[in-house]
């Protein structure tokens, strides 16, 4: 811990830890980019500490986050495509989620996404049951993406704690 008196003092460590916690919350609520916040916080810590170990932890976190972004797009898209959800429905959901975010504070984004996917699928299929089935498929994909990002954020926090122990 003596090294932190040179590189990063306790208030700085607390701020980095708080930023990581805020980042993890961001992976859950999806209102701001949680993983980049975590990466920046750990990058600041690595820069302040300046050891090879700190930079290795930062590099490991960067790999985890990049891999999670790839997986959070590929796996949910595969799930949704396997269940028959077309890109047009997902695009409509994303557009209405964006609009909903501004029209209905806090809950507008998920409501907009559901309404957008359901409406696009109802127009395409002309069937309430089919539209709802595709909407549930899209929601599963979104939840899988959130779970992947949450795991990456938690793993990144764990790597940072490991870095604290090792440096």
Could you walk me through the main structural features you see in this protein, from its secondary elements to its overall organization?
By secondary structure, this protein is mostly helical. The chain contains six helices and no strands. The chain has helices spanning 10-29, 34-49, 52-82, 87-103, 108-125, 128-166. Helix 2 (34-49) runs antiparallel to helix 3, helix 2 runs parallel beside helix 6 (128-166) and helix 4 (87-103) packs antiparallel against helix 5 (108-125).
List the helices and strands and how they pair.
Blueprint: H1 10-29, H2 34-49, H3 52-82, H4 87-103, H5 108-125, H6 128-166
Helix content class: over 70%
The succession of helices and strands, N to C, reads: HHHHHH
Assess the beta-strand content as a share of residues. Answer: under 5%
Mean model confidence by pLDDT: 88
Give unreliable regions as ranges. Answer: 1-6
Strands, count: 0
Going by helix content, strand content and strand pairing, the class is mainly alpha
User: What Rg is obtained from the alpha carbons, in whole angstroms?
Assistant: 20 Å
Alpha plus pi helix count: 6
Question: Sheet with the most strands?
Answer: none
Distance between the termini: 8 Å
Global geometry: elongated
In a few lines, what is going on in this structure?
This protein is mostly helical and 167 residues long. The protein contains 6 helices and no strands.
Name some characteristics of this structure.
167 residues; mainly alpha; disordered N terminus
């Amino acid at each position: 811990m003596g090294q932190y008196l040179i590189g990063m003092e306790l208030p700085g460590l607390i701020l980095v830890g708080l930023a990581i916690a805020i980042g993890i919350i961001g992976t859950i609520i999806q209102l701001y980019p949680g993983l980049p916040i975590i990466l920046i916080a750990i990058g600041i810590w690595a820069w302040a500490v300046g050891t090879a170990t700190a930079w290795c932890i930062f590099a490991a976190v960067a790999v985890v986050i990049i891999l999670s972004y790839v997986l959070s797009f590929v796996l949910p898209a595969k799930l949704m495509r396997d269940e028959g959800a077309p890109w047009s429905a997902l695009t409509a959901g994303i557009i209405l989620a964006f609009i909903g975010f501004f029209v209905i504070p806090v809950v507008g984004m998920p409501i907009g996404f559901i309404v957008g996917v359901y409406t696009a699928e109802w127009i395409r299929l002309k069937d309430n049951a089919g539209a709802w089935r595709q909407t549930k498929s899209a929601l599963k994909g979104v939840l899988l993406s959130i779970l992947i990002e949450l795991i990456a954020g938690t793993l990144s926090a764990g790597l940072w704690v490991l870095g604290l122990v090792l440096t």
